[in-house]
Specification:
single chain, 5 helices, two-stranded antiparallel sheet, two-stranded antiparallel ribbon, elongated, 4 strands, 139 residues, mainly alpha
Length: 139
């Protein structure tokens, strides 16, 4: 059995986060020692690692609770659980696309404008365009 502190060390969660997850009912069947302190077994630690993965996938608490509830229903809920994971995967793929677009913008800006200025190919300074309310042309 692991204490809260040991469970935090095992999972990489802060004490406050693990306590929050427990209080939200996201760690089912938490056991307590003779002093009423939470203790965790290896199955709990594995479950908490799964919660960490879901959180890293940007899943919200409400969805994590729904997922837990379905897990507790047993194998009949597997199609619903797969659906939740598929939706989360789609959100992550969209996030990856958005991040890649941002990276591409940064690279284009560096290569098409700033590198040219540094190499003396372009010497036009950035000016504030009062009429349009934005920077131009190098923003």
């Amino acid at each position: 059995m692991y204490s809260m502190k040991e469970a935090c060390e095992q999972t990489g969660l802060t004490y406050e986060t693990l306590k929050f997850y427990c209080n939200q009912g996201l760690v089912p069947n938490v056991k307590r020692d003779s002093h009423r302190r939470r203790v965790f077994d290896d199955d709990d630690i594995a479950w908490i690692h799964g919660l960490c993965c879901l959180r890293n996938c940007e899943m919200g608490i409400r969805d994590m609770k729904e997922y837990l509830s379905l897990c507790q229903e047993g194998s009949t809920s597997i199609p619903k659980r797969k659906g939740i994971l598929d939706r989360q995967k789609e959100l992550l793929l969209k996030r990856i696309q958005d991040l890649q677009a941002a990276i591409n913008y940064i690279e284009r800006k560096k290569q098409q404008y700033y590198d040219d200025i540094e190499q003396g190919k372009v010497c036009e300074p950035v000016k504030w365009n009062d009429r349009a309310g934005h920077l131009s042309p190098g923003t």
